[in-house]
């Protein structure tokens, strides 16, 4: 197979209801290491007001759907076999994983590195980024999961870094039949990951990284949800990440040398200082 | 006069001896508000090893000189009358201010918003970014100030946000004849700024902002020198900024509405989280 890796920039912010997700995608795209073999495509995302309305109990559902469809269109046009995705919020992994599952099928394993299981649905929560694993299993948001043509089986998902799920989430994880362990250490247990790969004979791996899996202490990793300088009330499903940045970086780096990484998402990177610099520029009469 | 504003991206890092300054310039460029009237030019800066040698008691002096000359060349080619500069470290303001002083002469005032006076010279310190005001006064680094064709007079500089200078710096400020007041409040005293403008009949203003003027508490402004996750010993001239971000933003924004801002530098923005994300990408076998 000829190898073709694309870089997909998906500035979807509506599924997480915070425009700063858009800025995260812009920054990741700008700083990424150069590689002339890798085409970079920025997905056109919905223009919508910064105050989003709920539709079918989902924040900005129609904008989210538009973003998902635009992402799908780009991937199908490009026909890659490896995808790097710069989010945006966690929803950005939906179409890349769906597409790669169409190529690799039961040989594909997905490591979901996240403090949260993202397996919700509109009956229990309203922001789509918490439903992306649900959608990939066809157990999430009926309106959005329709775009998933190649749903995952529950054994294809491995949660790493997961914190105590809510009661609703626990039920949904169990109903879906996903095995999981709440992360009490601050390091990923690589042996468990490797056992899961062996048991399932996976040959291709997708890693989804939600940076909020990390402890948000400013000496560990700053650019996460919990350092929002304007943060109001924390939703009750927002478990706080505990992982050490160095251990996650080491895990992904080592893993990518030893296994065939066919996809990587960097999601929910929230560059607060960049946002502040942009605020200054927007309000200064020289730009 | 036909108005022409350019955006100058100056990824000089050598004058501050930290490659992350380069990343700061990249991020600022990427996130800046769109304006099709403003051409953006990235100055080619020296490639050099990340371990820099001292030359004439100045870190990477020849690389710094190259960066200064390339900056000068771009400005002279473009012939703007307003310049926005994305640093890089503080040295990036040298050539824009020199050039605009050539246009506006004694009608130009420079507000230097910084915890530090940047008035050093190679006899008392070794990193060029601490010498830029010295160079602009022709009292800094003999080898680098030669590039300043239109030196400032001491009344043209107003320090805002300045913390207690070192003894050497105090002497140099006094010898240069600059009036200053150490900033004990966390807000800029706008009245003092306005008095200085009136006394000197300035009609055009350049604002240089070194983000380290701000208190580096992560709830105030994170992306500064003092949050370097690998920070070792702090040099003894590194006074800690005390200003509130909101007050500085408000000052610059209000000021730019009421006065003719002909130049703005954003300098020493150090996006540690972006640096960490780049580290991850550099070490992951998919890029």
UniProtKB/TrEMBL annotation, chains A, B:
InterPro entries with a match to the protein in the record: Ureohydrolase (IPR006035), Ureohydrolase_dom_sf (IPR023696)
Pfam families found in the cross-reference section: Arginase
GO-annotated molecular function: arginase activity; manganese ion binding
Superkingdom per UniProt: Bacteria
Keywords, in A-Z order: Hydrolase, Manganese, Metal-binding
Gene Ontology CC, one term: cytosol
Enzyme Commission number(s): 3.5.3.1
Enzyme type, top EC level: hydrolase
Family stated for the protein in its record: Belongs to the arginase family.
Protein name in UniProt: Arginase
Lineage: Bacteria, Bacillati, Bacillota, Bacilli, Lactobacillales
């Amino acid at each position: 197979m000829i190898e073709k890796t694309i870089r997909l920039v998906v500035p979807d912010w509506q599924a997480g209801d915070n425009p700063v997700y858009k800025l995260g995608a812009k920054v990741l795209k700008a700083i990424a290491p150069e590689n002339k073999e890798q085409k970079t495509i920025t997905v056109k995302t919905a223009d919508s007001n910064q105050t989003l309305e709920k539709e079918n109990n989902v924040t900005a559902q129609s904008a989210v759907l538009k973003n998902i469809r635009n992402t799908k269109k780009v991937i199908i046009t490009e026909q890659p076999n490896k995808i790097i995705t710069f989010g945006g919020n966690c929803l950005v992994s939906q179409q890349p994983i769906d597409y790669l599952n169409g190529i690799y099928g039961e040989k594909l394993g997905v490591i979901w590195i996240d403090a949260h299981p993202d397996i919700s649905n509109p009956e229990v929560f309203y922001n789509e980024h918490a439903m992306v694993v649900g959608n990939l299993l066809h157990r999430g948001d009926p309106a959005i999961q329709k775009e998933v043509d190649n749903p995952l089986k529950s054994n294809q998902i491995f949660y790493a870094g997961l914190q105590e799920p809510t009661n609703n989430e626990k039920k949904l994880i169990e109903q879906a039949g996903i095995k999981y362990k709440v992360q009490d250490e601050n390091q990923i247990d690589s042996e468990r990951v490797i056992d899961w790969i062996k048991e399932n004979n996976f040959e291709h791996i997708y890693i989804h990284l939600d940076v909020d899996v990390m402890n948000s202490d400013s000496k560990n990793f700053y650019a996460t949800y919990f350092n929002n300088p304007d943060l109001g009330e924390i939703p009750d499903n927002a478990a706080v990440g505990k992982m050490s940045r160095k251990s996650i970086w080491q895990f992904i780096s080592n893993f990518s040398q030893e296994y065939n990484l066919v996809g990587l998402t960097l999601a929910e990177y929230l560059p607060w200082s960049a946002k502040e610099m942009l605020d200054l520029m927007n309000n200064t009469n020289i730009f």
